[in-house]
């Protein structure tokens, strides 16, 4: 029997960071409905902290959703999490920097700040009955000991899944496999893999991460996203469907891609 893997599609969150691409409420509702109908496991639908219009769109997506889990993205900022709660999602995803270059140089904070703020954000969401997943931003440049220690702390708080994010797109397939395997072996956490395509390795890295034990695989339709984009939805499903039990089917993925390309008026898709 093939191992089961789950698609977490972030076309409407990370994909919308493609230069020049802005999705209307109507477009997001159409995209969410297509993905839901096709059997995409989880749809990362947006960022509530963007503002009231985004919150209204996310609430509308929750109203039409039938089967897919809907998640929203939050920084490790309590006000972001409060806005996420207003959307009534299935999952609140809280993203925290884990590399020292982001913690110390970009944010001018320290590891204690990360742990303290992450703990308070998780507690706020859990106290209101929401499932939380945590994103390790810039994990591909982070210290493995800090990540595993933080993951074990999260497990004690009731978090069961972490997102390993290759935020700047520097991973190789072999390094992806090794690191994902280490995190699972040392922590027992479920791992979600979020790959960027700067070196053209997003699909390969995601496949090797899945072979290493990552059960949740992030994609965007047409590989949309900032810089060189993310792991391509159709390419990943086409490559993975012979190895893993994964939905949608190859044919279904192509159909969705074509329909979404038409919705977003993306030529040549």
The largest pleated sheet is described as: 8 strands, parallel, barrel
Look at the helices and sheets and give the structural class: alpha/beta
CATH superfamily: Aldolase class I
- Low-pLDDT runs: none
Written overview of the protein:
The chain is an alpha/beta fold and 269 residues long. The chain has helices spanning 25-38, 52-64, 78-86, 100-106, 111-127, 144-156, 173-187, 202-212, 233-240, 250-263; strands at residues 6-9, 42-46, 69-75, 91-97, 131-137, 161-166, 190-195, 216-219. Helix 6 (144-156) links the parallel strand 5 (131-137) and strand 6. Helix 3 packs parallel to helix 5 and helix 7 runs parallel beside helix 8. The protein is globular.
Structural key phrases:
45% helix, alpha/beta, 269 residues, single chain, TIM Barrel, 8 strands, 10 helices, 8-stranded parallel β-barrel, globular
How is the topology of this model organized?
Blueprint: E1 6-9, H1 25-38, E2 42-46, H2 52-64, E3 69-75, H3 78-86, E4 91-97, H4 100-106, H5 111-127, E5 131-137, H6 144-156, E6 161-166, H7 173-187, E7 190-195, H8 202-212, E8 216-219, H9 233-240, H10 250-263
Parallel strand pairs: 1-2, 1-8, 2-3, 3-4, 4-5, 5-6, 6-7, 7-8
């Amino acid at each position: 029997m093939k191992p089961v893997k789950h698609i977490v599609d972030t076309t409407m969150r990370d994909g919308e960071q493609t230069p020049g691409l802005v999705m209307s409420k109507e477009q997001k509702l159409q995209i969410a409905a297509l993905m839901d109908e096709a059997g995409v496991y989880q749809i990362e639908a947006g960022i509530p902290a963007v503002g009231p219009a985004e919150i209204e769109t996310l609430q509308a997506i929750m109203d039409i959703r039938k089967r897919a889990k809907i998640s929203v993205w939050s920084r490790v900022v309590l006000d972001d999490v409060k806005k996420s709660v207003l959307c009534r999602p299935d999952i609140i995803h809280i993203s925290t920097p884990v590399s020292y270059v982001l913690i110390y140089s970009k944010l001018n904070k320290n590891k204690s700040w990360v742990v303290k703020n992450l703990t308070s954000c998780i507690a706020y969401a859990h106290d209101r009955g929401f499932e939380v997943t945590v994103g390790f931003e810039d994990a591909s440049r982070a210290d493995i000991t800090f990540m595993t220690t933080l993951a074990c702390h999260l497990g004690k708080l009731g978090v069961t899944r972490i997102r390993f994010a290759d935020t700047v797109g520097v991973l190789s397939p072999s390094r992806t496999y090794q690191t994902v395997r280490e995190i699972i072996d040392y922590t027992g956490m479920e791992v979600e893999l979020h790959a960027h395509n700067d070196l053209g390795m997003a699909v390969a890295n995601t496949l090797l991460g899945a072979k290493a034990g990552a059960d949740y695989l992030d994609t965007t339709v047409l590989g949309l996203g900032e810089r060189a984009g993310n792991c391509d939805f159709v390419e990943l499903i086409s490559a993975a469907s012979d190895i893993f039990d994964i939905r949608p089917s190859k044919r279904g993925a192509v159909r969705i891609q074509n329909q979404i390309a038409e919705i977003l008026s993306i030529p040549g898709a």
